[in-house]
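Narrative summary of target 7.
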Amino acid sequence: MDASVIVCTYNRGESLRDTLRALKAQQPVARREWEVIVVDNNSNDHTQQVIAEFQREWPLLRYEFEGEQGLSHARNHGIAAAQGDILLFTDDDVLPESDWMEVTLAGLEQYSADACGGYIAPIWEVPPPGWLTERFHGFLAVRTERSDDYDITSPSQAPYGANMAFRREVIQKVGGFDTSRGRKGKVLASGEDIELFERILSAGLKSMFLGQSRVRHKVESFRLTKRYFRRWRFQTSRNIAQSKNIAGERRLLNIPLYVFPQFLRAVVRMLWGHMTQPRDEAFNREMVVCHFLGLMQGLYRSRSS
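Modeled conformation, tokenized:
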């Protein structure tokens, strides 16, 4: 089989319906052999019924269930179940353009690439507030800063799960997603995509950004609040601290001593920023403080190990 599209879902039945409509509207070339796999990660809404509705008239769609909570567990399940040579990933709140799959497959072939990511445009449920400038789009899995094709050479350029693809051999060579990272239920952790691309780049494999491989990502109103951003930054940094080795031998409560003065400087910069800086810069400094708080809690929690 040429390609497998993998969608992991958790309690987003109606949003998943929109994603499946967009995938069903894909326009594959003649004789393309492909499939769509939806991995249900313990949903307790009507997700299974939505999938069953589509399956009645769409034989390409497969249902898989992953009982271990966590997006990385679900993605790895999808990889294991997939039959395609190319593994394409998108999310249950994303609408791929009708040529998304073909543009992605063509780009991998054109550049002899092993992995790729693409353009992710926002669908704002409500207009974003003034402080939410493009510097924060990454927290919302939005990527619109460039629309050309270019080599991915740094983990900071790693694609987001809403729009990424790999040759199957990549996963066989570097392994799947780190199950100690990534979102689990309602916990807003992340970093599993970047960590995988770190391994891909370290293995000397070729990764590309494809500007014409395009999807649209729904951004709900509740995600456009400072409270959501603080929670996302705190929980993600906590998850990173619990899953990644942090350097430093001299510690207090398992927190390297050098972290404490860094944290205090971040607090001072935040307070000064709220008095002197534009709204986006002031909030960015607040996010740095949330990062340190999450990092320290994660290190403290993992002190016994």
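The radius of gyration is 20 Å.
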